[in-house]
Amino acid sequence: MNAHALQTLLLVLILLVSAVVAVRHLLPQAFRRAQSGIARSLGRPGRHRVLREWGRRMQPAEARRGGCGSGLGCASCAGCASTGAESAAAIPLKFSRPPIRPAG
């Protein structure tokens, strides 16, 4: 493998990890749903034992504790607005303009 290919591979890996971290922080519920779906797909009976183990390890913490995504039904994670419990909200982005410097 030459240096250019290695550099490209590392850049792609860094960008992929950065995108996953950003989605995880900005869209936590959507990330947990996707993570739970992938884990459920990998953990199906009939899959190779290595894939089932990856699926078990990929489960969100709430699913391992019996919460959201565990099959206990809606509102088991207290993430629904109808339950009255606080849900994990996305982190709001705060934008501010730089101060205007006087001409001179």
Summary keywords:
single chain; mainly alpha
Strand content: under 5%
Mean pLDDT: 79
Unreliable runs? 81-85
Number of strands: 0
Quaternary structure annotation: single chain
Helix and strand sequence: HHHH
Helix content bin: 40-55%
Q: What global shape is seen?
A: flat
C-alpha termini separation: 56 Å
Number of helices: 4
Model description:
The protein is mainly alpha-helical and 104 residues long. It has a domain at 3-64. 51% of the residues lie in helices and 0% in strands. Helix 1 crosses helix 2 (28-42) and helix 2 (28-42) runs antiparallel to helix 3 (49-58). The longest helix has 24 residues, at 3-26. The N and C termini lie far apart (56 Å). Mean pLDDT is 79; it is low at 81-85.
How would you summarize what this structure contains?
The protein is an all-alpha fold and 104 residues long. The chain contains 4 helices and no strands. The chain has a domain at 3-64.
What does the secondary structure layout of this molecule look like, with pairings?
Layout: H1 3-26, H2 28-42, H3 49-58, H4 61-64
Helix pairs in contact: 1-2, 2-3
